[in-house]
Amino acid sequence: MSDDRSSGGSLTARWLERLFPGVVGEPRDRKDLVALLKQAKDRALFDTEALAMLEGVLQVSDLQVRDIMIPRAQMVVVGRDNELGQVLPLVTESAHSRFPVIDDDPAEVVGILLAKDLLQYCGNNAPRFKMRDIVRSAVFVPESKRLNVLLREFRASRNHMAIVIDEYGNAAGLVTIEDVLEQIVGEIEDEYDFDEGAFILRRGPNSYTIKAHTTIEEFNDYFGVEFDDSDYDTIGGLTVNALGHLPARGESVVVDGFRISVVRADSRKVRLLDVERIEGGEVPAPAAKAPPPDTPGS
Predict the structure, then answer these.
(1) pLDDT (tens digit per residue) in 159-171
(2) Which among 141, 169, 182, 272 could bridge 263 via Cys, Cβ 3.0 to 4.6 Å?
(3) Closest listed residue to residue 174, CA positions, set 249, 114, 247
(4) What gap in Å lies between CA 2 and CA 14, rounded to an integer?
C-alpha cells in the first residue's frame, strides 16, 4: 500500500516538473498552487479565462450559499392562490423559468412553479388553471451549505433551484445551479436578451439592465450624462467605488439620480446591474452609436 502511495506521489511530482520546470516538490498549500497556475498562464500553457476558471474551482469549496444567494427581498415570487391572469404578466416581465410559490407569509415557500407548466393553459380548450395542480416540491438548503456540496446535490437530484432557509426555517433567499456555476465559469447570460455587441438593455421607461463592463463613456453617451471616468473605466467600477467594497447580489446604491442594483456578482467582480433613473424623467433617445432601446425576450 505504501509503495502505491509512493508511486502515486512520484508520478504527481514528475507531472508537476513537466508542467512547471524548475519547481521542486509539490505545492504546500492553495496559495502555492495558485502561484504555480499563474506561472503556467504566463508561459502560455493556458489563457487568462482558463486561469480564472481554475481559481473559481478552488474558491467554490470556500464559499457558502449565503455568499451568493438572491436575498428574499429580491426574489420574484407568485402566490399559491394567484390566478393565471396574475401570474402570466409576472412571468413574461421577469423572463425567469422558475418561481418560488409563497403562502400568505412571504417567508413561507410552499413550492416551485415552472414557467413551462403554464403552456398547458394556453389555447381554446385549455383546462381551468389551478396553481395547486402544478406547484412542484421545493428543495431547501441552509445558508451555511458549501457550494461544492450544493453543486454535487444539484447534479445528483437534477434540481436547478433551492430555497435557502435561515436558522428558524424561514426563507432567506434562493440559489440556482447557474449561480454556483458562475463562480467557476463567470457570467452566464440567459434571461437577458441583449442584442449582439450591446451593453445596455432597456426594460421599461426608466429601467435598464447593464453589463458591468460597460464603459463610463458608453454610459454617458446613452443616458446623456457626464459621469467622471478618471478613476474607473466601467459602470461596474463606478458601482464598487460608490459602495466602497465589492458588492454582493442585491446590494444597491444611488449615484447622481440613478439607482444601481447588483444583479450578478461573484467573489471576483460585479457582472450585471439593474439601473433605474429616479430623477429627470424620461431618458433622451440614445446617440446613434449607442445600442437601441430594447425589451427582454421571453
Answers:
(1) 899 999 999 999 9
(2) 272
(3) 249
(4) 18
Of 135, 156, 185, the position where a domain reaches its end is 185
Q: Specify if 51 maps to a domain.
A: no
Helix (H, G, I), strand (E, B) or coil at 9: helix
Q: Three-class SS of residue 262?
A: strand
222-270, pLDDT tens digit by residue? Answer: 988 888 888 888 999 999 989 888 887 788 899 988 999 988 776 667 8
Whether 192 maps to a domain, the answer reads: no
Angle (nearest 5°) at CA 141 between 65 and 191:
65
Set of cell numbers at residue 163: 430555497
Residue 126: all three cell numbers together? 385549455
Q: Has residue 54 been placed in a domain?
A: no
Domain range for 72 is 66-185
Residues in the chain: 298
* 270 phi, psi to nearest 5 deg: -85, 140
